[in-house]
Amino acid sequence: MGKATNPKPRMAYAIDTENKNFLDQWAEEEGRSTANLVERLLLDAIARKKRDSTLRVASSGKNMSDRKT
Domains in the chain: how many in total? Predict the structure, then answer.
């Protein structure tokens, strides 16, 4: 199987051992990888934030409040 033509950007983060173990167990319980579980949780949180917030994000991904007027 070859490389994807447009792979997803990667992110690295640090998490304490207790929470990592919790995520690992949660993912196993749901029959998915920990990375997939974390992605799902993150996408759900982003969708909620977009729906419930007045936060405006420019297409560049920068917070609009950072712009000088």
Answer: 1
Position 5 in a domain: no
pLDDT class for 48, splitting at 50, 70, 90? very high
Residue 9 lies in a domain: no
Residue at 57 is within a domain: yes
> With 0-12 CB in 10 A as exposed, 13-18 as middle and 19+ as buried, what is 43?
exposed
- Predicted confidence band of residue 30 (pLDDT cuts 50, 70, 90): very high
pTM: 0.67
Alpha carbon separation from 25 to 14, 20, 38, 42, 50 (Å, rounded) = 18, 9, 12, 17, 29
Range of the domain at 42: 20-66
Average pLDDT value for residue range 28-37 = 97
* CA–CA separation, 33 and 28 (whole Å): 7
